[in-house]
């Protein structure tokens, strides 16, 4: 890791420990507006979003490793701030040659791609634009509650295009998620939209891959915290007159999780290094597939080895576990990305 | 071996199905079918309906108001109830304390408490686990000291399921501190209205409230509330846990869950096709269905052995491990089938947004909540220890 990125990681970790402690998160992430306005403003003031955009786009980073550093820190802190849509928005706007200063400064943008019958699928998008007016529904739009503007993928003149829609021009029904944080249903009924990109297919694929990489890094940060919580527990909890960590059966299971987490770290590094290269999509698919599988394993095993305490709301592990399982359902689950890899195999 | 039920058993199964079709209120079955917790009123209504029929405690002998059902009849009844989305019968009175009182209680205790379990006047909860004694019950610390004609109870219990609705609790308490830890435990019945008891809710991972902590400070309990003899609580606890473990495979719930996942996978789409046509998802589904068929037969093999008077050894532990893992896998498939639509925190406000197909908004909550089934009643790790001990002895 370069010195700059190490400084960024340290700075973010310190800020998040202070602005987003996991004990307070339990209240913040599950009640409207499902995140902390103060933490959001703080992240913007810290310049964290500059790490997500390239210099040409007005930022100071934007590489796969920059994205990883930021999201791993968010994952370690289990931060519910909707940074993922900011990353997607920055990438899409940059691809269109748009200014991103307001987004870098903390303006909330959300990206509407998935629909009820096409949760991960660009080819299945049914939202349509006609004469600059959009009709359709975007479902489970992350960060949608509280966003000031939306970037919406829609069919337009036979191509997949990207439009900007102001929040006030759509019907936005916000809600919280089971693992915390804000989302929304966005209903478009002839809503006025400004064309941002007429042919957005490549930009959308790139943004989705960058987003999937970010989620993998977030999961990695969260898994490492869970592994730490588990090992502390095995070293302190007594049953049958001894520390449960003295049972070899549990030692081996905890070690197996550690091995899997190292695998996750490796595949995330590989995907991050491929950002900007032709094989980025394949590397991201490998990472999201493996991380999705490993994150569920880590989550379920850590709960099981804790016993009842692991499924209580008061214990931070439970919230990490929920995030780790639900992260799989964002931007393509294990099966989705495995299918991408299978498709690539037959094309080799 | 014959895998079919006998003609009598088939007739009983048909009778149960007909009864459920007629007597189970539709709005309750809808709620349970959606994966929501039945309300207190749902559970009380269903208990009263079953009691009216004489099926609330079907395994109890006729002299105590039951039907004298054997293991196969009980199995048929519980499978059909699960498949019909009936609320679970809260087991603490009917399946746990009832059999204990029938075996170890005095005639006075039986006359006092058994009718009150059936007619719903008493809602019992269980005081077994403690913060330092989860699966390791022998290390429990809640103490009961004799003071004339009362025991004075001090300590703390935890994981007390549905304690918020209960008016009585049966507890394992320590009455002797020297000797082997198992030999100093007693089984005590406590009225929750007694001064010195405080019940505090424990919120669970998905946000729901079904378990509690119970604190006892100088709680005075009449000595006639002791069941069996002083310091024989371990024997009673083992007897009771044996009962708890018999239906823990929960294959009826899995059968119902499997049908729901299949229906859901026909409804939702990926890449323009129904999810059930997706080879990866279909492979997972077909695989867990095969596992479920096997555990159903394992369960029946165990039941026919028990019905023939055979001693059950390792079978309940095997069933618990396999049955819970299969149910959890089905819960995972239901959550996975929804994709992002599983993410919203379930609430009534969301119902009209129809993010998930009807009846599936609780899928993720159900998945997280059901992490408990491989932990409670002796975790799957404890079941493996039991199996390993048996293997090394044998």
Question: What report would you give on this structure?
Answer:
The complex is a heterodimer of chains A (348) and B (394). In chain A, 51% of the residues lie in helices and 17% in strands. The mean pLDDT of chain A is 96. Chain A is globular and about 75 Å long. Chain A is an alpha+beta fold. Chain A is built from eleven helices and ten strands. In chain A, α1 (3-19) runs antiparallel to α3. Chain B is an alpha+beta fold. Helix content of chain B is 46%, strand content 15%. Chain B has twelve helices and ten strands. In chain B, α8 packs parallel to α10, α9 (279-307) packs antiparallel against α10 (315-338) and α10 (315-338) packs antiparallel against α11 (363-369). The interface between A and B is large, with 50 and 56 residues.
Global morphology of chain B: globular
Residue fraction in strands of chain B: 5-15%
Succession of helices and strands of chain A: HHHHHHEEEEEEEEHEEHHHH
Residue runs with pLDDT of under 50 for 5 or more positions of chain B: none
Helix-strand sequence of chain B: HHHHHHEEEEEEEEHHEEHHHH
- Largest contact between chains: A-B, 50 and 56 residues
Strand order of the largest sheet of chain A: 1-4-5-8
The outline of chain A comes out as: globular
Structural class of chain A: alpha+beta
* Sheet of most strands of chain B: 4 strands, mixed
The poorly predicted ranges of chain A are none
Average pLDDT score of chain B: 93
């Amino acid at each position: 890791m370069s010195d700059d990125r190490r400084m960024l990681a340290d700075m973010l970790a310190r800020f998040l420990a202070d602005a987003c402690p996991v004990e307070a998160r339990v209240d913040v992430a599950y009640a409207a507006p499902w995140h902390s306005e103060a933490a959001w403003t703080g992240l913007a003031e810290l310049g964290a979003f500059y790490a997500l955009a390239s210099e040409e786009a007005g930022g100071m980073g934007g590489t796969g490793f920059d994205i990883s550093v930021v999201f791993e820190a968010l994952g370690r802190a289990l931060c519910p701030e909707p940074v993922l849509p900011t990353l997607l928005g920055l990438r899409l706007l940059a691809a269109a040659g748009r200014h991103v200063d307001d987004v870098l400064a903390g303006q909330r943008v959300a990206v509407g791609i998935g629909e009820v019958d096409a949760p991960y699928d660009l080819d299945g998008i049914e939202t349509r634009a006609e004469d600059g007016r959009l009709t359709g529904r975007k479902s489970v739009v992350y960060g949608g509650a509280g966003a000031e503007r939306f970037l919406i993928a829609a069919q337009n003149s036979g191509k997949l295009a990207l439009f900007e829609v102001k929040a006030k021009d759509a019907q936005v029904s916000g809600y919280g998620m089971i693992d915390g944080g804000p989302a929304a249903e966005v209903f478009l009924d002839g809503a006025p939209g400004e064309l941002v990109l007429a042919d957005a297919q490549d930009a959308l694929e790139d943004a989705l891959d960058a987003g999937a990489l970010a989620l993998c890094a977030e999961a990695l940060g969260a898994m490492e915290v869970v592994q730490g919580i588990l090992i502390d527990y095995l070293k302190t909890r007594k049953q049958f007159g001894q520390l449960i960590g003295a049972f070899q059966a549990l030692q081996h299971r905890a070690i197996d999780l550690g091995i899997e987490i190292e695998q996750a770290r490796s595949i995330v590094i590989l995907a991050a290094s491929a950002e900007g290269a032709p094989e980025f999509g394949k590397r991201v698919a490998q990472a999201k597939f493996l991380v999705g599988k490993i994150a569920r394993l880590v989550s379920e095993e850590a709960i099981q080895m804790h016993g009842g305490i692991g499924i209580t709301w008061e214990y931070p592990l439970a919230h990490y576990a929920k995030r780790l399982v639900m992260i799989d359902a964002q931007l393509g689950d294990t099966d989705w990305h495995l299918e991408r890899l299978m498709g690539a195999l037959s094309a080799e | 071996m014959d895998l079919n039920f006998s003609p009598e058993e088939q007739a009983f199964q048909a009778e149960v199905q007909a009864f459920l079709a007629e007597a189970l209120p539709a709005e309750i079955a809808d709620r349970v079918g959606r994966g929501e917790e039945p309300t207190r009123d749902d559970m009380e209504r269903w208990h009263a309906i079953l009691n009216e029929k004489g099926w609330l405690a079907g395994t109890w002998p006729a002299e105590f108001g039951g039907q004298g059902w054997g293991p196969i009849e009980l199995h048929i009844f519980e499978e059909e109830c699960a498949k019909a989305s009936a609320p679970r019968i809260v087991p603490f009175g009917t399946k746990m304390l009832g059999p204990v009182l029938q075996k170890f209680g005095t005639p006075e205790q039986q006359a006092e408490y058994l009718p009150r379990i059936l007619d719903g006047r008493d809602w019992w909860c269980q005081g077994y686990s403690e913060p330092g004694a989860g699966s390791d019950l022998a290390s429990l610390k809640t103490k009961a000291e004799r003071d004339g004609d009362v025991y004075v109870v001090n300590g703390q219990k935890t994981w007390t399921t549905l304690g918020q609705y209960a008016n009585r609790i049966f507890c394992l308490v320590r009455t002797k501190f020297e000797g082997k830890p198992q030999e100093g435990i007693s089984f005590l019945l406590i009225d929750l209205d007694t001064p010195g008891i405080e019940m505090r809710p424990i919120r669970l991972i998905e946000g729901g409230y079904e378990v509690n902590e119970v604190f006892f400070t100088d709680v005075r309990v009449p000595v006639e509330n002791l069941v069996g003899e002083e310091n024989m609580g371990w024997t009673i606890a083992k007897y009771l846990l044996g009962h708890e473990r018999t239906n823990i495979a929960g294959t009826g719930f899995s059968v119902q869950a499997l049908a729901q996942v299949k229906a859901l996978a026909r409804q939702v789409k990926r890449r323009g096709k129904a999810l059930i046509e997706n080879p990866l998802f279909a492979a997972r589904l077909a695989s867990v269905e095969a596992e479920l068929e096997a555990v159903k037969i394992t369960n029946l093999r165990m039941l026919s052995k028990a019905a023939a008077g055979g001693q059950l050894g390792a079978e309940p532990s095997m069933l618990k491990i396999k049955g819970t893992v299969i149910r959890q896998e089905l819960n995972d498939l239901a959550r996975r089938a929804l994709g992002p639509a599983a993410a919203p925190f379930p609430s009534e406000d969301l119902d009209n947004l129809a993010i998930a197909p009807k009846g599936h908004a609780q899928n993720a909550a159900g998945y997280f909540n059901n992490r408990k089934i491989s932990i409670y009643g002796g975790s799957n790790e404890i079941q493996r220890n039991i199996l390993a001990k048996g293997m090394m002895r044998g």
